[in-house]
Design a protein that fits this description.
Helix content is 29%, strand content 19%. With 694 residues, the chain is α/β, with parallel strands linked by helices. Bound molecules: beta-D-galactopyranose (GAL). Beta-D-galactopyranose binds next to loops.
Length: 694
Amino acid sequence: MSTQHPASGARPVFSHDGIAFGCDYNPEQWDRSVWREDVDLMREAGVDLVALNIFGWSHIEPRPGEYDFDGLDEILDLLHAAGIRVNLGTGTASAPPWLTARHPEILPQVEDGTTRFPGGRQAWCPSSAVFRRYALELVEKVAERYGQHPAVELWHVSNELGCHNALCYDDESAEAFRVWLRARYTTIERLNTAWGTSFWSQQYSDFAEILPPRLTLASRNPSQVIDFHRFSSDELLGYYRAELEVLRRHSSVPVTTNFMVTAHIRNLDYWQWAPEMDVIANDHYLDNRLADPTAELSFAADLTRGLAQGGPWVLMEQSTGAVNWQPHNLAKAPGEMTRNSLTHVAKGADAVCFFQWRASLQGSEKFHSALLPHAGTDSDLWREVVDLGHTLDRLDEITGTRVQADVAMLFSWENWWAADGESRPSHGVDYLSQVHAAHASLRRLGHTVDLVRPGADLSAYKLVIVPSLYLVRDAEAEVVSNYVAAGGHVVITFFSGIVDEEDRVRAGGYPGAFRELLGINVEEFAPVLPGQRLTLASGMTATAWSERVRARGAEVLDTFADGPSAGRPAITRNVVASNSSTRGVARYLATSLDPDALDAVLRDAAAEASAHPQGDEREPGLEVIRRATAGHAIAGDTAAASDTPRSYLFLINHSAHDVETPARGLDLVTGDTVDNIARVPAGAVRVIREDPAR
Ligand code: GAL
């Protein structure tokens, strides 16, 4: 792969020959005698990108200021000699015991003010100056030593920054929060206005009085909570920059860190982080606590591609089978690892990496799957790993191509923090579930969806979905309105446009920022209790939410037949005509529709917008995605310019039966020619290099 973030100017290009196949490797856990065997087996499987030194600190600096790089030197050289490239960790992810024993003040505090101790990992406060000093000294040594090493292809800063320690409530964080607030608001009066502190006698007379939102008896000031999230995300990004700055002094190799675009971690605003990465990297694990883990994988991959501005990205970690941190750690079915991997590739990943190479024998991850399982090489899992390596080799020509999508959806971490506040209208709805529901519906309908940030240019899309975008800035709402005024089609769902950036309600009727665009006015929310079903006049069903909508120019497509908003509009459609030839359409959904109903509404919206599904909803188990060179681009820029346009059709069969679907070209997975109809066996994936005449 070869990629460079569009905003990165002169920064280095991450370049890997073909699709990378890689893993985390923790050789510190193994006797040196195992290392050679590991490298041989990596070659057998086709592994060509290995992450090292992620948790290396206590090995390479066993005592303060005393460094021992013998082991790391040796393994880097071994990998280099085998032609395997290295994704080198700076080693700072987890502080060694000598550091926390010497400086217990670096330990993090949770919201009730209690300390979290060492013994796990990432036990450090993001604002700790002492931690940062020691960590940067280590980075300096590592960068000095390996900055020019020919095996190093990528720098891996720390590990999953903020996975455990994103929100720290100790006194040092409190002080850093005040500095951040001063920079944002300048005066205490402005902060008081922004936070609405005239409520509950919360007026501050000085920044010195402000604390992080530690646990309270009554609910906390929501603006303070949102700002603390913003601060915490910025604080870790500042830490990333500090490591980056050290690396840059010694090395011109691209730098990244592994994001966690996932359902259960939400503490970093990756829209802010992404422009600072040389390449976007994500860790993704199937979450079997969700109703449809594969739909979430699909969503997370689309969002990661959004962070990469539509360009290629690196899947830095996933699992071959079970993880160890869910209540029920499910093994993957035969073929599932391959299907997961190729879904990520279909959605723009040009690198497929795993945690980890060899399954640990000790420690809390000893029951986490790996490329090389406890059972060894005489295992189905190992055979599938080797097979996957070969398959990825056959897909090398796909690198650099871009995913084709003409539907976009807005997504915002900031809104996630705000919309899921402590005192919201109903705990029966939450932001991510609404986003997932809309994404899953579009996926069922066969659409590939680009996830974009509020405020992003929407002009390339036929249809845009705005699910529950509670917090929205004027300028961001304006982009949506202008898009519709220019002929675009939008679907906005309930609890959108309600507050401004400071969490202040937009008065005059909901959904404040989108009221005019939608031609409606909502007088009151009327959520319902869990278990209560709502029926619409059409017979469609819904749950959780209703509201008292009045149409002010919009056409009413459906009404509530029962529940607290009976007789009121539930689905509306407003035509916005700027002139006789330009007509945009803004639909509104005032409830949480059941999947069939949501499909029906989005199917109509997509058809009216002339958005073209790549898949066929009559074949629900088959996910269809197309990657292509710039000549084929529907949306996005032209990063992958090429003289001869090429396109690749990914056919991912999630079902238990064989499927046939129209396609023409060469199947890169099997090497077979496909004439008109591709047959995709149950659970398999086919990748067709399409004939130009398609
Ligand atoms: C990630 C982490 C890895 C490993 C993995 C297990 O969060 O970066 O080090 O712990 O999870 O699933």
